[in-house]
Each structure stands twice: as C-alpha cells, then as structure tokens.
C-alpha cells in the first residue's frame, strides 16, 4: 500500500486551521494579515496598528528572500548550485554570504546533523519539488552514489566571497533554515517600523516580540500523532524575542509497504531520520531554532541533550519514534504539564 502526503502550497492553505504551533485566537485588539511566501502561509499579527506600507515591505522582503534561497528557478542559490555541478569553486553572491556563514556554523555546531549540503539527496528523494515527489524510496545504488558524492557545508570553505567544496557535483538546499532567517528578517523590519508587539506564524513556526494585551503570547505545540481528538501536545507562553520551531515527520512524507519516508534526512546516511516523530526548539534566533529543530530530530533521544548543548539551545522537546516525550529541564519548567506525560 502506498500513501502520499505532500506539503504543497494548496495543502498549507486548506490546512491553515491546523497549525504546527497555534497562537491564541485573534480578537479585535490584534491586526491580522496573511502573506504567502516560502511555500507556506505566513500570518503576521500585530497588537495595535500597522501601516499598509509596512506590510508591503514585509511582502517584498519575503519575496526577495524566497527568490534568493530557492533551489528552483534562476535565483542566487539556484545559479550557485548550477555552477557547483561542474566546478569546486564559485563566487558567493553578497546576498547569500551572511546566510552561508551562519549555516556553516550551525552545521558545525550540530555535528553535521543540520547540513544544507544534502541538496542532491533531497532532490533524489523527491522532496525538493512537487514535480519530483516520489511514492517509493530511490534505488539503493543511486542513493549510495549521491551520499558518497555529496559535499557537506561543514567541510566547505567560505572566504566569504567564494565558496569552495571538496567535490562536484554539489548542491545546497537551505530548506531547514531559510524560513527561520525569513522570520528574523520580518521581525527586524517590524521593529524598525516602530512595532513592539507582534507574532509571526510561518506555517506553524513562530516568533514573537512584546506582549499581547499585557500578557505573553500563548501558543500550542502540535501533537505528531493526534489521538482521540487531541491535536495539541502542549501549550506555553512565548516571551519577547523568542522563537519556537518544530520539525515533524508529518509535514512531507509518503508511506510505502507500511514504512513512513519523510523529508527530514540524516545527512550522514542519506535516509530519513527514523528515531523521532517531532522536535521542538525554543530560542531567541528563529534561524538557529529552525536549524536546531532539524538537528534535534536527526539526533534522536540518545544524542538530543548533547547536540542541543553544542547548539546553545536550552529549551527543547522531542517526541521519539515510539511516542515517548523527552525534554530539557528548561522546557519542562515552561510546560509543567509535561511531567504527567
């Protein structure tokens, strides 16, 4: 039996009411706007007034970032990847330099569990584009060849105007951190416009500034395997400047012969990481939270604590493949109800 679930734009729109993390209902004290970018619906909620021009700036910033970091089309990253198919060295556009440097450090901090160098593996598995989506795993020989040929961002050299990889072809895919970078940029844009209280929900991944009606923003963390109508795993208050991101095996996947194959690949094996159902991270940087959620998912319960310590993450929550909860002391302090689960 085969089952295919694709996290496409249409699916994101239809499933808007079931967020990976869900903020409180928006009432009259909050101005609520929705934009579509980075393959997902992005909701910006501001406690107070927001000028239309600011929303236009946010839309423009998101569109620009999506173009720059997409592996498809002819944007900056797509052009760079094209060069790295045949050359081990390529000029690094100024628009990508800061992101490459930050991602390389995140790759190192995670021990390679977060690694944008998986681009060819993502493409082989069909998770880069709906037109490539598979319903069965790729052939073993193709998978082994792609794994042996891949160039890790951890091992690449950035000077910062040039990127040098150890072998070709190389393909970078920033799907595990670009959304976090986008959220950080939009938050900075809102703050520059004088907005002090807002929440951004980017397809379920969230960052907040300030408060809402003199109280912290409250959100829910989606249950990876809802049972008996229970869709939320836990809820907590998110404070000024905090981001909370989740990686889950329910976002993009297919089922073949009873096995769930999802889009979160372990860069070391080239296979979907099978030790987790979902991983949630709380951090001041949305970009780091995004990458760390992927790294935590790949790490699994055995290495979770050490990897999160290396990445500078104090608050994290992991649901392992058997549905058991694992959480840091800092996260348990934020969600007292976890003690009974």
From TrEMBL:
UniProt xrefs under Gene3D superfamilies: ApbE-like domains
Cofactor, free-text remark: Magnesium. Can also use manganese.
SUPFAM superfamilies for this protein: ApbE-like
GO terms, molecular function: metal ion binding; transferase activity
Listed EC numbers: 2.7.1.180
EC class: transferase
Family under the similarity heading: Belongs to the ApbE family.
Name of the molecule in the record: FAD:protein FMN transferase
Origin species: Oceanococcus atlanticus
